[in-house]
Design a protein that fits this description.
The structure holds 2 protein chains of 2 kinds. Chain A has helices at 43-50, 73-78, 96-106, 115-129, 144-157, 174-189, 201-207, 225-228, 232-239, 241-249; strands at 3-14, 17-28, 32-36, 58-63, 66-67, 81-83, 162-166, 193-197, 210-215, 218-223. Chain A is of the alpha/beta class. Chain A folds into 2 domains: 3-80 and 161-249, 3-Layer(aba) Sandwich (Rossmann fold), CATH 3.40.50; 91-159, no CATH class. The longest helix of chain A is centred in the C-terminal third of the chain and has 16 residues, at 174-189. Chain A is globular, with a radius of gyration of 18 Å. A two-stranded antiparallel ribbon of chain B has the order 1-2. In chain B, β1 and β2 (135-138) form a beta hairpin. Chain B is globular, with a radius of gyration of 19 Å. In chain B, 51% of the residues are buried. The chains are: A alpha/beta, B mainly alpha. The A-B interface holds A 51, 53, 72-74, 77-78, 82-83, 85, 89-94, 98, 101-103, 105-108, 115, 154-155, 157-158 and B 161-163, 166-167, 169-170, 172-174, 176-185, 235, 289.
């Protein structure tokens, strides 16, 4: 598989603390990769390093072979790397549809749709994530699960080749998680490489063919979920004995 | 009754100017979260451009308005891009200090170029007005009100129906999310400030036709813009227009109270602002955020 995104020794320090410390791995085109790890392991920081929110202290991020370290966030987005935020950040002054239109209008360097075309694209993305019927509502009228859908829809509308999803399932109940899983699968099947940061193991096991475990800013394990989740170090650092017993029992 | 109607007309005509001054100020405040203390200076730069073109080159003052808009847009874009963008994430106090300083620079440059003499734009039609059953409506003020309303409508449409407008709304709503859908934050901010300055410039051009100007004449307009935006409610062009018209009406009626005159007009207008802030803090037409 072609490496689409390569992280080489990516390091980000805050003061003396390395939140991300020499992370190296690559993501192939069409993969769906889970990133897990305890709170404070540096998962979101790593996303911020990729999407240009943070400047790297060391290392390099390469996108389709070229370095993107140091690019402004909007340039990274236009290259085809979309992302969502753990705490959703909708444009509250706009309707649901307008939020997605904003993504469609500005997201890509290769294609600059006209306003009408952007509205059309927004509607098809809203269809994909199941928000079509709520397109004309103000954001404030949306429930939390729907706001998470909107966050994904806006990112998908930018026509990303790689989508970084930061805990889109957090705070959802199990029915809502099933719906959200369907949505992520649908997005992935439309040809987008997906990186999922997630705490919900069911999601990781359900959709990811590969999992990277972070702990104190370093890669602790990297491999298929059934191998990684049985790794003694991963159990110690993150999953805990109880989960491990349940996994063995099942 | 005639006196009442005359007051309403005076108030609305003055309100049109206030709206024109307030719209750009409100746009910059709402989107960039900058209370631009140099806004009045931008207004007066527009006024001097009109005066210069009229007095020196003999251009009709109404024809100078589009030129004011373009010149001030370029100036505003450059100031935001080169100066204000550097402190856009700094606390509010820094933007106060910076725009206060920009105001001082602008006023003193105007003093150097134009001296402190009063300048006015007096055309052949300056004194003329429409007489309606004993009421007199000056043509220039009527046109200014119309231009202010059209300008506000154009701006509102631009913000809601165009690519650049959606970018401005997006950065105003959440600058981090805006960047991550691919919006160039610095450019969007600079365009916003440029648009605010352009509207201020046109307002200034109209003010030059109505009153005598000096380089320091802009400062009251900063204050009035502030009141107008608070009165109407931050975040929408239409709200600022309503704020401007209401401010004009309150001022007109305040001046008409026997024994009041222009001395208390400001006190009454600001009193109304305080009253509205106490009873309706989101402004007359604002939505709570």
């Amino acid at each position: 598989m072609d490496p689409q995104l390569e992280l080489k020794n990516v390091t980000k320090r805050f003061g003396g603390v390395a939140a991300v410390d020499g992370v190296t791995f690559a993501i192939g085109k069409g993969e769906i990769l889970g990133v897990i790890g305890p709170n404070g392991a540096g998962k979101t920081t790593l996303l911020n390093c990729i999407s240009g929110v943070y400047r790297l202290d060391d290392g390099d991020v390469r996108w389709q072979g070229a370095s993107i370290a140091g690019l402004a966030p909007f340039r990274v987005a236009r290259l085809g790397i979309g992302r969502t935020f753990q705490i959703v950040k909708p444009f509250t002054s706009m309707t649901v549809r307008e939020n997605v239109v904003a993504g469609a209008l500005f997201g890509s360097d290769e294609e600059r749709p006209r306003l009408g075309a952007a509205f059309g694209r927004a509607d098809s993305v809203l269809e994909l994530v199941g928000l079509r019927s709520k397109a004309d509502l103000p954001v404030s009228a949306l429930t939390i699960p729907d706001r998470k859908r909107l966050e994904v829809a806006r990112a998908v509308a930018t026509r990303p080749k790689l989508l970084l999803l930061d805990e889109v399932m957090a705070g959802l109940n199990s029915v809502e998680i099933d719906d959200a899983l369907e949505m992520v699968r649908a997005v992935h099947e439309s040809g987008v490489t997906v990186v999922l940061i997630e705490h919900v193991m069911r999601v990781i096991v359900g959709v990811c063919a590969r999992v990277v475990v972070l702990d104190v800013g370093r890669v602790l394990a990297d491999g298929p979920p059934d191998v990684v989740l049985r790794d003694e170090r991963v159990i110690q650092a993150y999953l805990g004995e109880r989960y491990a017993r349940r996994l063995r029992g099942s | 009754m005639a006196a009442f109607a005359q007051l309403v007309i005076i108030g609305l005509l003055a309100g049109g100017i206030y709206a024109a001054v307030g719209v750009g100020f409100g746009l910059v405040w709402g989107v960039l979260n900058i209370v631009n203390l140099a806004h009045g200076a931008l207004v007066i730069i527009g006024a001097y451009l009109t005066w210069q073109m009229f007095a020196v080159w003999g251009v009709d003052p109404f024809l100078t308005l589009p030129i004011d808009a373009i010149a001030l847009f370029v100036l505003g874009y450059a100031v935001q891009r080169g100066v204000i963008n550097r402190i856009i994430r700094a606390p509010l106090l820094f933007t106060f200090l910076l725009t206060f300083g920009l105001n001082l620079i602008a006023v003193n440059v105007l003093l150097l170029i134009f001296k402190s003499d009063f300048r006015s734009v007096t055309t052949a039609y300056s004194g003329a007005g429409l007489e309606l059953g004993g009421l007199v409506i000056p043509y220039i003020r009527l046109a200014a009100l119309g231009i202010a309303l059209v300008m506000a409508a154009v701006l509102a449409i631009l913000l809601s129906r165009t690519r650049v407008g959606l970018a401005i709304q997006a950065v105003g709503s959440d600058r981090d999310a805006a960047q991550l859908v691919g919006i160039d934050l610095r450019h969007a901010y600079a365009v916003t400030f440029g648009l605010g300055a352009a509207v201020a410039g046109v307002a200034g051009g109209m003010i030059a036709m109505i009153q005598a100007i000096t380089p320091t004449a802009g400062e009251p307009y900063t204050l009035q813009a502030f009141v107008v935006v608070i009165l109407g409610g931050l975040g929408r062009v239409s709200a600022t227009v309503v704020g401007g018209l209401v401010f004009g009406l309150v001022e007109a009626f305040g001046q008409s109270i026997p024994g009041s005159g222009s001395v208390f007009a400001n006190a009454i207008a600001f009193g109304v602002m305080v009253l509205i802030l106490v009873t309706r803090p989101q402004g007359l037409m604002g939505r709570l955020r």
